[in-house]
Each structure stands twice: as structure tokens, then as C-alpha cells.
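Record minuted for completeness.

…
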Amino acid sequence: IKEGESAKVGEVIALIGEEGSIKEVESGTSVILSTPAARKLAREHGIDLSKVKGTGPNGRITEDDVLAFIEYQGGKISSSKKIPVDPVRKRIIENLVKSYRDSVLVTNVTKVDVTELMTLKKEFPDITLTAFFVKIVSGLLKEFPRFNAHFDGSVIEEFESINIGVAFDTGDGLIVPVIKDAFNRSLKEIGELLNGLKEKVKSKTLSVDDLSKSTFTITNLGMLRTDFFTPVLNGNEVAILGIGRVEDAPLVMNGEIKVRSVAYFSLSYDHRVIDGALAARFLGRLAEVFENRSLLKEALKI
């Protein structure tokens, strides 16, 4: 700008720095400030400096800015296949987002000695472990009714009927058919119902009624070599129990090390409705039932 002339708003009137340290790069009508090292690196990698955000004084582009840009570009992976989200997966996504958004999710985990259960299981080879879990948990829900409930944000609705949803892996996502009135059903009946639901899942013939009215959900990932995890609440339910794999492990019992069958149980719950202490008592009672043969047989009604 010549002496006596006025500068326009936003116009560069001076560049301050050592000689050769700053260079103006024209990009359309804008001026890009960059250091020599940044320009050299940009040339070597064929980078247009107009696409790089500068973090130096007055927005000057530094070598670090160019390096960050290179790293960002390198992190972009061109997809070989784009897969549209099908209606079932879209519904799963919507339900998960709603559940996560509308609840205060907390998970308590406990390790349980299930040796007594595994011993009893040998007497019922045709009944799956999941059926045992459904029957035992149904009794706990009778004892802890707060877990057998829905919450809509303003009203807690505890249910008399205990309807346990059981998560099945379809290969395309989880689906949760329901064992209705589980508390009043025998272990054998629950096993038969689960087998029937499993066949319906495979043949994709589940009805709306099969998927409706759950009050509590169980998800068993033990067969997939998972120990513990954070299950996400199903719909308006206030709790869900995740079951990990059963494996042999050393436990100290009466001062002696013994090999026992153990599993981790992960209880996720809505902290707005269930306090941590109540969740801990629920898991504690669960462990007590599993670890005491007489309590276990009483819970299973066998």
C-alpha cells in the first residue's frame, strides 16, 4: 500500500518474519501463509495447501499441519463394498439408540461358582443352560420386583407377570423372542419353548406375539467365548442380564485351591430406577442361589 492510500478491510498490509520464512501462496483470491518446511513437504506429497488448515500465527501453515493432513488423508479407507441397512438392522439401530439415549446405563459384574448348576445339568442333557438361567432368574425377579419393570421417564411400572426375553443371534443381528409367564413354567417347559423359538428364529417365522411383552431380558454370549460385557437395555425395560462363558478355574475354598466351574454375570440397569446397592444385592442373591445346591434345586423346582 502506497503512502497516503487506505487499506480495505481484511486486506493484508504487512508480513512479519525473517526473510524467506513466509511466502504468499495465491489460491483464487485468498492468501495462504506457509513456512518453507511446510511448502517442501506439501510439494513432496502433492498436497494443495489451500486444503490444509494452518495453526500457526495468523493461520500460517506449519510442517506439523501438513503432517497432520497427511495422517488424516491416510486414515481414509476407500470402501470396496457399500451395504445398505436392511429394515431389521435399521429397527435394531433405532431401538439401541433410543435405549442408550433415554437411560442412565450402568453395569455391575460378578463372578459366580456354577459348579452345582453344571452338575445338575448332566441330569437334563436335552435342556440348554439358557433354560436353567431363565428359570432361576424368574424366581429372582419375583424376589426383586423392581427389576421386572418398565420406565417411560416418569412412571415405573412393575409387572406381576414375569416375561423373559431371550436374545438370539440371527447372523444379521440380535432378536429377542419372549418366554411369557416364566415363573409359573417348569424347567422342561421353558426348555421346550426355547427350542421352539430357536426353530422359528432359523425359519424366520416368529410372530409379533413371540416378540412382545418382555419385562426383563437375558443375553447369553458364553458360547461365543465372551466372559463379561455391557448389555444394552431392551426397550423400556430397566435391567438386562448378560451371561458369560462357563469355564474351569482355580478357586480358594476353605483354605484349599480347587478347580471349579465359574462364569461372569453382567447386570446392566437404568440407574434412574435401580440404585447400585440394589443391583449388587440382586447379583449377590443370584450367586448365592447358584452356589448352594438346595437353593438351586428349589429355584429350579426339581
